[in-house]
Amino acid sequence: MTNFLNNKFIAFLKLIRIENLVIVVLTQTFLHYLVFQKIFTEANIPTNIYIKLFGLIVISTVLIAAAGYIINDYFDVKTDLINHPETVVVGKVIKRRWAIILHITFTGLGIILGMYTALKTGYLRLALFHILTAAALWFYSTHFKKQLLVGNIVVSLLTAAVPFITFVFEIAYLQKTIPEFAANNIPVILTASKITLIFCLFAFITSLAREIIKDMEDVAGDKATGGKTMPISWGIRTSKTVCFFLISITVILLLVVIYNSIKFNGEPITTPNMYILFGLVCPLLTLLYMIVTANNPKQFKHASLLLKFIMLLGIGYCWIFYLG
Q1: Of 171, 165, 200, whose CA–CA distance to 188 is shortest?
Q2: Residue 248, Cβ neighbours under 10 Å: how many?
Q3: 20 to 30 A from 167, CA-CA: which of 69, 77, 84, 85?
Q4: What is the Cα 201 distance to its own chain's centre?
Q5: pLDDT tens by residue, 24-57
Q6: Which ranges in 218-274 belong to alpha helices (H)?
Q7: Structural domains of the chain, count
Q8: Domain enclosing residue 124, as ranges
Q9: pTM (whole model) above 0.90
Q10: Exposed, middle or buried, 70 (CB in 10 Å: 0-12/13-18/19+)?
Q11: Are residues 118 and 60 in contact, defined by beta-carbon separation less than 8 angstroms?
């Protein structure tokens, strides 16, 4: 890993968390093309008018997210040198000055694109999403990250905002371009909003659990640099209990989705139900076991990676919805 990171391009990709940015792109793209387009097309609502603007929304979201990862690494060098010294790039491969320049550039471009897309929807106030997100990422890195629960909740809310922004901008643009859209399509909007809410809840709860797991993984470095994260303030055992509770809630909610599907369709064995059961619930139960038995940073790292994969599988449900 260290040899790869000596390459400035590879180091840059690591700095902006390219894998996480890909997840952001997939989340918004799948929701737009596989979920919302299906819902609106079945209701004879044209969605091709929104495609160009949608691309700009994705780019603005990615730019602001990348800027957030950069500034987080900039302020977190001391902690990372303790927890993950082999993966530190700021100050080693990429100069601190260039990290700040990249952060300012990406943030500025992301906000400008956000304001442009908001203006095109006819609701300039929607630009507040991008402005507040950029501000939240800055204050997360400078103040919130090492505070008890505050940083975890901020990151989880921002993760949940990714699908929410997609929904809000889409509805706003359709309302602007199609007269009487909202008045004539209330059931369609409610369907889209319910699905968006499910994705937002899944993103928030799993992200919160993952942030706590990462805090348990990084407890040594956080403690050495004055952090007051949950594992430091409440202990590893309590942190495990909170994670167990969050993952259990997620499992219960997914089982409720299956139950409602069976109640509505009258068929227990369907592709969506099987995907949720074996693609999400079973891996989450495995994760519960991993959390309970984890005792060192490496084991917590494995649990964190599994949860990231489960979050990716959650996004994959868009395909099941589209094909169903």
Answers
A1: 171
A2: 13
A3: 69
A4: 11
A5: 999 999 999 999 999 998 888 877 667 788 999 9
A6: 219-224, 230-233, 236-265, 271-274
A7: 1
A8: 2-323
A9: yes
A10: buried
A11: no
